[in-house]
Amino acid sequence: MKNNDAIIILNEKCTGCTLCIKVCPFGAILIKDKKAVIDLSKCTLCAACVEACKFDAIIIRKKEKAVIDLSAYRDVWVFAEQKKGKVQSVVFELLGKGRELADKLKCNLCAVLIGENTQEGAKELIARGADKVYTVDSPHLKVFQDDPYTRVLTELVSKHKPEIVLCGATTIGRSLISRVAVTLRAGLTADCTGLDIDMKEKLLLQTRPAFGGNIMATIIAPDSRPQMSTVRHKVMQEAEHDPGRKGEIIEEKFPEATYASRSRLLDVVEEIEETINLAEADIIVSGGRGVGNKENFSIIKDLALSINGAVGASRSAVDADWIPYSHQVGQTGKTVCPKVYIACGISGQIQHLIGMKSADVIVAINKDPDAPIFGVATYGIVDDLFKVVPLLTQHFKKTLA
Amino acid sequence: MKILVFIKQVPNTTDVKIDPVTNTLKREGVDSIINPFDMYAIEEAIRVKEKLGDAEVIAVSMGPQQAVEALKEAISMGCDRAILISDRKFAGSDTWATSYTLSQAAKKIGDYTIIFCGKQASDGDTAQVGPGISMHLDIPQVTYVKKIEKITVSSAVVERMTEEGYDIVEVPLPAVLTVVKEINEPRLPSLKGKMRAKKAEIPVWTAEDIGCDEKMIGLDGSPTRVVKIFTPPPRGGGRLLEGDPAETAKELAGLIKKEIIG
């Protein structure tokens, strides 16, 4: 009887050497009766074992492909998220990367703008590199709602068949694009940190972190279209603004029923934090257990203010009630990716590192030379933060004012 | 009234380390836990039941046999019963196939009013399965729910977290709600709960039991495929600044200014 399992160990070739067990990131292989056995309910088909096996004893069977005409799909699309009519800056970063991809594929870079009074936004998108901008304009689309935006984007993609769709990994983007991908049976990869084209296969190579950033995975969607990815803010380079660029604005219209929504938006509440939004900040100054008490946190806040940065905190500081939870950086708090992350009195437990280790430059100030934070810091000072931090603040006040 | 909570058993990522010799994940001694975001989903489901009364909270997980431990923990927190969805045919499921499979399980359970999910799982970190389920079931969704302001058997008014604050959304039920950590503080299991969990019988449903189309599950149902897994180059090669605070602070200020201004 044909074994239809996704991945098979050829027992006649397996020597029980356990090399596959050592490389499996998911603990899905064990030895039974001196042969390797894969627990299919744990296996993700990452193929690490297939590569590692010296005896070619592991094979992944061929996939039953749904046959679609891949050549009918052309162009790189970017979903242009807007709030209050303003195109979000992550979109300019997507256009930057999108231009690279479109140039490699020798196709157009297009943007999709859904909202009300989209003309100004559309012009901005062209200035940032879009060859075409598809706009869908309606008072019903002024603010994001799951149903209308899902329907509109799905219809547009079905009609125009882009081969790649990029979207910001924002609150809106992640909810929206997941639903569009399911309807289209398209492969979607979230939070990509790397995007490239495999020139031989003309496929999008999507690289992203998994297991809290402990490993990286490169993913493809070979048989489905479009290939869809979300990308976080501040990961890619912004496309430059060139007001002289020319492009086409194509206005699309849909029947009213397309804009219907099952849920109703009752209100939009903005909470202005006393300092800048943490997740978006370019500079973050964080305080940990070493700060000692609530009053001392003002030292951290002062440094942050002097450098126009946001204030972060480790879980210890938040649990001790020295600063509200909204400032917590880490596995159970916020994930940040600033240009500069200054960790003061933070030991650098892995739960904290998960939230900030993708910062460009990490600065650690800690009395303890063995603190794990020094293992990831670009610059470290082993000293009393109460001595160093105020001096730093002074410097910035003098020279950056 | 049935309230479903979809949970996932994940490796405790804080325990996961890279083996410096083989440059792969070291999995020995790594605990399996309920995905952290799912704890908040379980807690919220139980709170909704406590508010509305006359409701049943059913925890469901798609995973290997050992995921039964996670389901028992859900019961010990207060879920009424649990179901494991498990089958070798699910091997290699990406989020499309996973959300399809879970929605088939929801259809088999039937007559659900709310489906709670955690915002994302800490191993895959995609946040795609919750929205995927809402599409497969063709029911509305609200993601990033940080508070349920009002709830009846036919609708809910919830706060959806945004980058600037939150939206207040009214959504008809049944619906999928994915929750964030701001929503509540998960309770610890009670002694009574632990005893219930110990005695609980958790049925295992296969692909056939939930009527899955074989082309939509596992390898065949997954449009995305992992082609490479590698460990990121470790951050290191940092520099310690030496000297007294006046000197180090000055040097550091200069380095930071260069970073910002360029």
Characteristic key phrases:
heterodimer, A: 401 residues, alpha/beta, Alpha-Beta Plaits, Rossmann fold, 3 domains, 7-stranded parallel β-sheet, 5-stranded parallel β-sheet, flat, B: 262 residues, 9-stranded mixed β-sheet, two-stranded antiparallel sheet, 6 helices, 15 strands, globular
What features would you describe in this structure?
The complex is a heterodimer of chains A (401) and B (262). Chain A has helices at residues 19-23, 48-52, 89-105, 119-127, 146-160, 171-184, 297-306, 315-319, 350-356, 385-400, and strands spanning 7-9, 29-32, 35-38, 58-60, 76-79, 82-83, 86-87, 109-115, 132-137, 164-168, 188-192, 194-198, 203-210, 215-220, 227-231, 248-252, 264-270, 283-287, 310-313, 340-344, 361-366, 379-382. Chain A has ten helices and 22 strands. In chain A, helix 5 (146-160) packs across helix 6 (171-184) and helix 7 packs parallel to helix 10. In chain A, strand 13 (203-210) and strand 14 (215-220) form a beta hairpin. The longest helix of chain A is centred in the first third of the chain and has 17 residues, at 89-105. In chain A, strands 11-15-10-5-8-9-16 form a seven-stranded parallel beta sheet, sandwiched between helices. In chain A, strands 19-18-20-21-22 form a five-stranded parallel beta sheet. Chain A has a three-stranded antiparallel beta sheet with strand order 12-13-14. Chain A folds into three domains: 7-60, Alpha-Beta Plaits; 70-259, HUPs (Rossmann fold), CATH 3.40.50.620; 278-400, TPP-binding domain (Rossmann fold, 3-Layer(aba) Sandwich), CATH 3.40.50.1220. With 401 residues, chain A is of the alpha/beta class. Helix content of chain A is 26%, strand content 26%. Chain B is of the alpha/beta class and 262 residues long. Chain B has one domain (2-216): Rossmann fold (3-Layer(aba) Sandwich). Helices cover 29% and strands 29% of the residues of chain B. Chain B has helices spanning 36-52, 68-77, 95-109, 129-137, 191-199, 245-261, and strands at residues 2-7, 9-11, 17-18, 25-26, 32-34, 56-62, 81-85, 112-118, 141-151, 155-161, 165-172, 175-179, 204-205, 225-230, 239-240. In chain B, strands 11-10-9-12-8-1-6-7-13 form a nine-stranded mixed beta sheet, sandwiched between helices. In chain B, strands 2-5 form a two-stranded antiparallel ribbon. In chain B, helix 2 (68-77) runs antiparallel to helix 5 and helix 3 crosses helix 4 (129-137). Chain B is globular and about 70 Å long. Chains A and B meet through helix 5, helix 6, strand 11, strand 13 and strand 14 of A and strand 3, helix 3, helix 4, strand 9 and strand 10 of B.
